[in-house]
Design a protein that fits this description.
The chain has no helices and 5 strands. It is mainly beta.
Length: 90
């Protein structure tokens, strides 16, 4: 059976080797046919701590790595543009 793959946006990277990925699911309302967006957050393993907040990533289902972590970051499809340029200080 193939493993599930999802695409989402990194919303938190404060944990070591773990990121929180928000995956949006869009579907039409059964009666009114308006598009509804539901967001689900998944904790995913990021072994090299490469993901930043706002990055678009592809995650894949894997064996349980911890109590809540069952996904693995396969690739970063799009890097987020940082708010501050490199070398500048706040």
């Amino acid at each position: 059976m193939p493993r599930k793959e999802l695409v989402g946006k990194v919303v938190s990277n404060k944990m070591d080797k773990t990121v929180v990925v928000a995956v949006e699911n869009r579907f039409p309302h059964p009666k009114y046919e308006k598009q509804i967006a539901r967001t689900h957050k998944f904790k995913a393993h990021d072994a090299e701590n490469k993901c930043g907040i706002g990055d678009k990533v592809r995650i894949q289902e894997c064996r349980p790595l911890s109590r809540e972590k069952r996904w693995l970051v396969v690739e970063i499809t799009e890097k987020a543009i940082s708010a501050l340029p490199k070398g500048s200080e706040v």
